[in-house]
Known about the structure:
Elements: E1 2-3, E2 6-7, E3 16-20, H1 23-26, H2 39-44, H3 62-76, E4 80-84, H4 87-90, H5 100-115, E5 119-125, H6 131-137, H7 144-160, E6 166-171, H8 173-177, E7 181-183, E8 193-195, H9 198-222, E9 228-233, E10 238-240, H10 245-254, H11 265-270, H12 275-281, H13 292-296, E11 302-306, E12 311-315, E13 322-325, H14 344-356, E14 364-368, H15 386-404, E15 409-415, E16 434-437, E17 442-445, H16 447-458
Parallel strand pairs: 3-4, 3-15, 4-5, 5-6, 6-9, 7-8, 9-11, 10-12, 11-14, 14-15
Antiparallel strand pairs: 1-2, 12-13, 16-17
Amino acid sequence: xxNGDRISYQFPEKFLWGVATAAYQIEGAASEGGRxxxxxxxFSGIPGKVLNGDTGTVACDHYHRYEQDxxxxxxxxxxxxxxxxxxxxxxxxxxxxxxxxxxxFYKRLVDCLLDHGITPHATLFHWDSPQALxxxxxxxxxxxxxxxxxxxxxxxxxxxGDRITNWMTIxxxxxxxxxxxxxxxxxxxxxxxxxxxxxxxWQTSHHALLAHGLGCQAIRxxxxxxxxxxxxxxxxxxxxxxxxxxxxxxxxxxxxxxxQNGGIIIPALTGAYxxxxxxxxxxxxxxxxxxDLQIIHQPLDRICxxxxxxxxxxxxxxxxxxxxxxxxxGYPRMNLPWLNILPDSLYWGIRHVSETLGRQDLPMFITENxxxxxxxxxxxxxxxxxxxxxxxxxxLKAAHRAVSEGYPLNGYFLWSLIDNFEWYWGYDxxxxxxxxxxxTQQRIPKASFEWYSQCIQNNRVV
Length: 462
């Protein structure tokens, strides 16, 4: 544990080190190989919706350059890679006929990974739903979306289940529902639409939870080999202002009403919506079918957490017994308005799943953690992103704390391998440990790339 008086931050022997990406953010080839538009193609094509008018039409051209990107992974030293599969590439119309060209692309990608000793971890939905289903029944506003998702999952696992055994159903439900559907305002950060009530917003996330549950059942039914199934959630992490017992208790008590925790991760992992949330929502709670919660509460082999920041909480003399704390004006953050540097959020996210939700039985993986930084090429063509290294180092120390205290954290996927289309922010915000020169598509590993490679090689924080 220590080297002299210094903590070595050594991880267990079988700790998994990986990187993560998502289809729409890197693939490009938006109209190639039989792919039809996703809602993000439509959204980013509307003037003013995405910074600088950027779209994912070309992105990082990963569709054509995946072998080059896998060579980067080999150079980095990872053995595990998380990526997503594009629904409109597999079933372009959202339902019905499977597009074999799309399937074959992922077969080539996965075979290349396996040839290089890299294990694929596939996310089945990372926000790029087919535009055809938006046109047909308004996407996640319709309960039918969950059933069409399950059919898509069946098609993917039937075709790729001999190559992929680590499946993640859905990525970050909150982002494409509660940020994609707006009450009394038009959503600005994601595709979706304006709705007439808060209840409708919660109905979209309920339908996404139902899709997760049906997706789990579809994976188990279609897979011909034993496999691992997970949900990926960006839970809102409550962090005690200090770790005295009174503030720790306040952070735990506040967890169900922070962000959308009470209506997403809590029903997924416990089988019931948070009673505190339902009391607050009242008539705005979603309609829940008789068997919905049973379907949603599927047995999982792991829970995957995307953690970037958190919310400070302290005990308070009020009916709730706690209060959420805003950040001071000078609080340090990375290159996005919301990306406050709060390394303890990673530790507390893990601890809340085990303790606050009582799921000590559930292995955990961090499937996204990273930061946008103001990356610039210097005169020698290098990116010396010591700010990103600082951020990652402190968060990995928090991960090490969780492991050393016995919480079941089994692996860490850094976001991201390469710079990419950062949704509303287009190509203006860079999360990669590899710099992409978009006009030439040149890949330039940053200083953080070498740093992370050293962590992997030494199995510790360096």
